[in-house]
Amino acid sequence: MPKVLVILIHPKFETSKANQILWDAIPESKEITKHDLYETYPDFFIDIKKEQSLLLDHDYVMFQHPFYWYSCPPLMKQWIDDVLEEGWAYGKTGNQLVGKTWIQCITTGGQDTAYSKEGFHKHTVNDFLLPFRRTAELCGMIYRDPFLVQGTFQLGEKQLAEFSNSFRKFIFSILESSHA
Q1: What Cα–Cα distance (Å) separates residue 65 from each residue in 28, 68, 108, 116, 140?
Q2: How many other β-carbons are positioned within 10 Å of the β-carbon of residue 46?
Q3: Which of 4, 20, 51, 139 would be 60's cystine partner, CB 3.0–4.6 Å?
Q4: What are phi and psi of 77, to 5 degrees?
Q5: What share of the chain is helix, strand, coil (3-state, %, to 5)?
């Protein structure tokens, strides 16, 4: 059974109902490791070797985060810069992540219609995720399209519960995959 590392990166997690519901939907399993970066590194001093060890121990790496200014929160960017070192994650001798899968679970305040060619942002979420796709590819990882929860500012309890159930099913589908 594949092992999944879920990395939560949310600087204001306590105020995000959508991210809390998704985080709580992750099943308890010996194959799943939940890792909160802002809780672990409130000072932004990342333990690179610890993070690399976590990556080595898992087949799937899922980043759960809000969409900040068409990207990710600052600690995720720093994590990428620090942890995915040349010679370890990419480059001539950087092959530690080859074959692992990169997935993002992203929440957006804006509706899905706002993230379209005709919408307010003039691009899809996937258009904005190109740097993450290329990072995964550079590291020899398999990039999967994100699990998206959009329009979070307008979602009611029933809709949030539906997304929670969908996310739980999504996680179970990963566990049942034959990737590892």
Answers
A1: 20, 9, 9, 20, 22
A2: 17
A3: 4
A4: -60, -45
A5: 40, 20, 40
Residue 124 corresponds to which tokens in the numbers above?
A: 């899809």
In this prediction the pTM is 0.95
66 DSSP β-pair partners:
107
Quickly list H helices, the chain.
17-25, 37-40, 48-56, 74-83, 125-128, 130-138, 157-175
Our measurement of the distance from residue 155's CA atom to the centroid of its chain's CA atoms, rounded to an integer in Å, reads 21
Q: Tell me: the pLDDT tens digits for 3-19? A: 999 999 999 999 999 99
Tens of pLDDT, residues 42-80: 999 999 999 999 999 999 999 999 999 999 999 999 999
CA distances from 23 to 28, 90, 93, 110, 176 (A): 11, 30, 35, 20, 19
Question: Amino acid letter at 123?
Answer: H
46 touches 39 (CB < 8 A): no
